Amino acid sequence: MKRILLMVARNILLVPIFWIRLCYHAAHVDKYTDEEHYKLLKFIDHRANVGGNVTINLYGSENIPKEGGFIFFPNHQGMYDTLAIMEVCDRPFSVVAKKEVENIPFLKQVFACVRAYMLDRNDVRQGLQVILNVANDVKNGKPFLIFPEGTRSKKGNEVGEFKGGSFKAATKSKCPIVPVALIDSFKPFDSNSIKPVTVQVHILKPMMYEEYKDMKTTEIAALVQEKIKKVIEKNI
C-alpha cells in the first residue's frame, strides 16, 4: 500500500488527467485500436514504476514473437506481475483474469482496455467458452497472458503447481507458448516498503506447436513449470 501511495504522490499532477483518460478509453473501447489503448496503459505503467522506485530488468527480449498470436505463461507472484510484463513488452496483449477481480477500480478499466476475458472458476461451461474465445483471438494474431498457477503463490519466488487446463487455449490455437520467469515481482505491492526494488522478467525461448503437439496439457504444464523454476533458482 505504501508504494502505491508513493506512485500516486509522485504523479499527483498526472493522476487526475490520466484517470479520466483511462475511464474514457474503458467506456469507449471500440473507439480506439488495441495499440492506442496499450500506448496509454504503458505510459501509466511506466510513470507508476518510476514514481514507485521500481526497476524492471528484462532478459530474453528476443524471445517475444514479433508477429502472430502467442501466449505468455508466467509464474504468478502478485498483482504487480502483469504490470512488470507490460513494461517490457511492446506488443499489445490481453489477459485471462479471475472473475473475482473484475470490478476492482483501475483493474476494471485496464481489463476493459485490453479486452480481457474474466474466468468464473465455478462455471465449467463459461470456462470452456473462455478457452475457445482466447484460442480464436490467438489464431487471429492476438497475444495473451495466462497465469497457469491460477492464483498467486504467496510464497515469494517459490513456484506453485501449473494447471494443465491453462494450456488448452494454446493447444487449440496451436500457438507458440512463451514461458516467463518473474523474480521478486511480489515485492512492489506485497511488501510494506517504499525502498527501491528490482523485478526481473525473463522471457524464455518459445515452445512451438511442433514441440508440444503430442503432449498432454498436464505434461506441457509440468515442462513449462520446470523451465521457469530453473531460471528462478539460477537467478535469485
- The end-to-end distance, rounded to whole angstroms, is 25 Å
Please state the CA-atom Rg, rounded to the nearest Å. 17 Å
Order of strands in the sheet with the most strands?
A: 1-7-6-2-5-3-4
- What is the number of strand segments? 7
Number of helices: 10
Beta-strand level of the residues, as a percent range? Answer: 5-15%
Low-confidence stretches: none
Class computed from helices, strands and strand pairing? alpha/beta
> Mean pLDDT across all residues, rounded?
95
Measured as a percent range, the helix fraction is 40-55%
Overall form? globular
Question: Sheet bearing the most strands, described?
Answer: 7 strands, mixed
- What pattern of helices and strands is seen along the backbone? HHHEEHEHEHEHEHEHH
Which helices and strands appear, and what pairs or packs with what?
Layout: H1 2-9, H2 15-27, H3 34-51, E1 54-59, E2 71-74, H4 81-88, E3 94-98, H5 107-113, E4 117-119, H6 124-139, E5 144-145, H7 168-173, E6 177-183, H8 187-190, E7 197-203, H9 209-212, H10 217-235
Helix pairs in contact: 1-3, 2-3, 2-5
